[in-house]
Specification:
This protein is an alpha/beta fold. It is 30% helix and 18% strand. The structure holds 2-acetamido-2-deoxy-beta-D-glucopyranose (5 copies). The site of one 2-acetamido-2-deoxy-beta-D-glucopyranose has 3 residues, from loops.
Length: 419
């Protein structure tokens, strides 16, 4: 992979600018849901009842000692379990089959964890909704988190489409309710996890420059999260952008700001501090009864050239598990792990259920699953999107993992009740 051999400065430039290209895409994400009744009007009977009923009999292993996140992708000729004709809620930028992606093999893999093959069964939407009856779930993060939710809505569409019950306009803070199950999903948009804003005074290379307040919570999510039964938090790609870092309301340095009088503390500094602040905010929640999942970084897969010189993601198959991850992904991932472990100790003392949704390896192994050039009309010019993910596709695994984790939690819950 040439990308990996480029100098670190080039790498920074790549990711910084990718992020910018990326985020111009987002406003189209929820255009399908502009009409609040649209989802209702479109209710369709499930088309795959037979497959699903069979799957409901699968037994889920609850072996605590098995790490479901360590494993490999194996062929699954039965996949996928929905497509762009059965699920209308796939946004354009993830709708690869609609825009003519010619190969279909990328939809035909399943995750096989080491030593506990059955621990992550095919997603069972009936089971998921039954567990979630009367509950609420929040997804906190950026556009990759939105990919995660879109996948969930499609997986669940085999049973029911939700109603848009958002209380504020726009795509950043949405709510959907599954009426039959009284289950609500809410999204909380946060780019850096902590308080941030575009820097109003320093123009930089024509790009945005962000002020990131590494020790201040982003109250748009922290103030609201305490009532949810399940919270999934993640952060990644925005941290690559040029930022000025603040602590205690004072500038302490920056990341890739290229300003002569400011120390470059690197992305790693900001990434760690932002996670620490966010995790501390969760530890500080009063009366939080829910389960908090930190989802680890889902990397991009640009190859062959720099992102703006034709870098692309053309692979049609997963990596084999021995494929080495790129250095930055490993470093970001390790920071998440370290900050998680640190917070987990505190969480245990306080009785807060903090869990790791450790998806980096599985997603790293799927360079074949990105939207690439199939997130829009073929004649539309533009760069390849090797950050977001086709639906159906490998990003669906996030929900398989989530369900497996939630089931473990529910098992513990019922055991606790018996005692
Ligand atoms: C989508 O799935 C349905 C139901 O399984 C199937 O009948 C249809 O042929 C699929 N469409 C495409 C384009 O794969
Ligand atoms: C629906 O669930 C919410 C909590 O998620 C609960 O407060 C409410 O009472 C439930 N409504 C019904 C009709 O069960
Ligand atoms: C933060 O800054 C204020 C003054 O601006 C100072 O009094 C205080 O000690 C600082 N706190 C920390 C933790 O550095
Ligand atoms: C750093 O330099 C920029 C312009 O190069 C200037 O606007 C800014 O005020 C300087 N900051 C400090 C802390 O000196
Ligand atoms: C991974 O293993 C396969 C065979 O098992 C080998 O062909 C391939 O070169 C290896 N790749 C790396 C990056 O080591």
């Amino acid at each position: 992979m040439e990308f990996l051999h480029s100098t670190s400065k080039q790498k920074l430039l790549i990711v910084v600018t990718i992020a910018i290209a990326l985020f111009t895409v987002i406003p189209i994400v929820y255009s399908f849901a502009k009409d609040p009744n649209f989802l209702l009007k479109q209710q369709q009977p499930p088309s795959q009842i037979n497959t699903i009923i069979k799957l409901q009999n699968d037994v889920v292993t609850t072996n605590e000692n098995c790490d479901i996140f360590s494993g490999e992708w194996v062929p699954n000729p039965e996949g996928p379990y929905y497509n762009h004709t059965t699920c209308y809620a796939i946004p354009e930028y993830q709708n690869c089959m609609k825009f003519g992606r010619p190969d279909t093999e990328f939809m035909k893999w399943k995750w096989r964890p080491d030593g506990c093959e059955d621990a992550v069964p095919v997603f069972d939407p009936w089971r998921f909704l039954e567990i979630m009856r009367g509950k609420t779930m929040a997804i906190v993060g950026d556009s990759v988190s939105n990919n995660h939710i879109n996948s969930l809505i499609c997986l669940l569409s085999q049973v029911e489409y939700p109603m848009d019950t958002s209380v504020v306009p726009g795509y950043r803070f949405k709510r959907w309710t599954y009426k039959t199950y009284n289950f609500t999903i809410a999204t909380f948009w946060t780019t850096f996890l902590v308080k941030s804003r575009p820097n109003p005074t320093l123009p930089r290379l024509g790009d945005d420059l962000f002020d990131v307040y590494l020790d201040e919570v982003d109250e748009r999510w922290t103030a609201q999260i305490g009532d949810f039964d399940y919270v999934v938090m993640s952060s990644g790609h925005w941290h690559f952008r040029a930022s000025i870092y603040y602590e205690n309301q004072t500038m302490v340095g920056c990341h890739y700001c290229q300003l002569p009088n400011i120390t470059d503390l690197t992305i790693l500094y900001g990434y760690r501090k932002a996670h620490r602040t966010a995790l501390n905010a969760i530890l500080a929640l009063e009366n939080f009864k829910g389960v908090m999942y930190l989802r680890t970084f889902a990397p991009s897969h640009f190859e062959g050239a720099l992102w703006n010189e034709g870098g692309d993601c053309l692979r049609k198959q997963p990596h084999q598990r021995n494929e080495t991850q790129d250095e930055t992904t490993i470093k970001l991932y390790n920071i998440q792990l370290e900050e998680f472990r640190r917070a987990e100790k505190e969480a245990k003392k306080k009785g807060i259920r903090l869990r790791l949704l450790d998806t980096t390896q599985a997603m790293w192994l799927r360079p074949d699953g990105h939207s690439g050039r199939y997130g829009r009309l073929p004649e539309a010019k533009g760069r390849s999107d090797c950050i977001h993910w086709c639906l159906p596709g490998p990003i669906d695994i996030l929900n398989d993992f989530l369900l497996a984790m939630i089931e473990r939690e529910e098992d513990k819950g019922s055991l606790a009740q018996v005692r």
